[in-house]
Write a structure and sequence with these properties.
Elements: E1 7-11, H1 15-26, E2 30-34, H2 45-51, E3 58-61, H3 63-71, H4 75-79, E4 82-85, E5 87-90, E6 98-101, E7 110-114, H5 115-128, E8 132-135, E9 138-144, E10 149-154, E11 160-163, E12 168-170, H6 177-184, E13 189-204, E14 219-223, E15 228-233, E16 239-246, H7 259-269, H8 271-275, H9 280-286, E17 289-298, E18 301-302, E19 306-308, E20 314-315, H10 323-341, H11 345-375, H12 381-396, H13 404-409, H14 415-433, H15 444-455
Parallel strand pairs: 1-2, 1-12, 2-8, 5-14, 12-19
Antiparallel strand pairs: 3-7, 4-7, 5-6, 9-10, 10-11, 13-16, 13-17, 14-15, 15-16, 17-20, 18-19
Helix pairs in contact: 1-5, 1-10, 3-10, 7-9, 10-11, 11-14, 12-14, 14-15
Bound molecules: flavin-adenine dinucleotide.
Flavin-adenine dinucleotide binds near residues 15, 55, 140, 172 and 311.
Length: about 450
Amino acid sequence: MSIKRETITLVGAGLAGSLLAVFLARRGFRIEVYEKRPDIRRESAGAGQAGLAGRSINLAMSVRGLHALHQVGLKDEVLGMAIPMAGRLIHPVEGEKVLQPYGQRDEEVIYSVSRGELNRVLVSAAERQDGVRLHFNARCTGVEFRTGVLYVRDDATNHVHSLRPRRIIGVDGSASAIRTAMMNAGRFDLSQQYLTHGYKELTIPAGPDGAYRMEPNALHIWPRGLYMLIALPNLDGSFTCTLFFPHEGEYSFDSLQDPAQVLDFFGRQFPDATALMPDLPALYRGNPTGSLVTLKCFPWHYRDRVLLLGDAAHAIVPFFGQGMNCAFEDCTVLDECIEAYWPDWGQVFESFGQRRKENTDAIADMALANYVEMRDLVSDPGFQLRQKVGFLLEQRFPDLFIPRYSMVSFHRFPYSEALQRGEIQDGILRELCASVSSAEQVDWNRADRLVRERLGTN
Ligand SMILES: Cc1cc2nc3c(=O)[nH]c(=O)nc-3n(C[C@H](O)[C@H](O)[C@H](O)COP(=O)(O)OP(=O)(O)OC[C@H]3O[C@@H](n4cnc5c(N)ncnc54)[C@H](O)[C@@H]3O)c2cc1C
């Protein structure tokens, strides 16, 4: 790659920041990265996770994230520490568990990966690049846009440094200090919408000799209408469970506090999971309750000087498993904008925002809608029938009809296209399934006509 030797300053060495440092260094830029936390690689796995208190300990990774990793040669390393999950394994209160496959081809799986391990791999990859310098315990406390001064406090000594970087990229997550500074600079749109539900992480430990105590190659869901529990496998045989639950109300984090009540509630609602969680009351009491927010803002850049990327620009709720995938796809797209417009940074930043904004808005909306699907619809026979008919339509029209989940997780269509086509497809499925109770009863001639009319190119 060409030698550019211009310096770019990144604030944040989380998932997006450390990957972005790799992308930019490969283009020949010098990179200075300021990260408020200590070096995650110097912490034990447990401490690293505690340092991320309130953040999910494992994540679902799919094609957009994998593609970005592939571009910088890290895909195989990450896949080596990931567990494939072929579908949702639904746990009803009573009765048999049901596996709902995510896709219908062997490669259509998503992967469970440890957030801490992934971050370690990415930070090490950044450090290996020529021209990258990482500064830990280095917290950005603000930016003065008028003078271009970036303030960074050394959290070990409390000393505040003033820097004058030419170019800053804020990859400092959903509570971004760079975004706050941008807002203070004026003419900046910002909306944030908190869910009335929050989340708490719990653990199902490994069995003897690190054996999994449930099916490892699935994302487990206990859908209960207004709330749900999910579990993703870890490499050590354990599962990280997340309870998504109202903050307030009859059944809520507010009302459910007493250990005996917790055990009783879990025992009634999630009996098989409860039997596998010996530390449930202590974990429930000790682990923090997190909030879930959708954050949209624009513009993402200030002149040719400052850009927001990843959660700093667009935080979404986790129900499509896409926040990190979307942030990694940001890195792919920014790299393409640099290829097209560098050294005109104003144009690089402008085109990045233009290409990404409608797509990040679309995945934000799809992620919100997916909460209802996960906690409620997955156990609805009508939803299950539509999903089955959707797969059959994909077999008949592989180029025209691709289920929405697959468009988002197994293809790299722009999210806005997945949203738009997904709505048309949902209309078709609802019409076809309105008065039938099995896929065999579907009027396939009508199906062919509807797909060609509404999804065909002419
Ligand atoms: C419960 C939950 C489950 C999730 N599950 C999934 C999933 O399954 N799949 C998926 O794709 N996504 C998932 N996500 C979303 C994913 O975690 C985020 O989208 C992703 O972490 C965004 O990466 P980022 O680098 O932009 O932000 P972050 O990962 O938050 O990184 C920001 C970094 O900036 C640092 N920083 C912050 N402020 C400063 C400052 N002032 N100065 C210096 N450094 C600073 C932070 O310490 C951190 O290292 C989930 C999120 C949650 C909350």
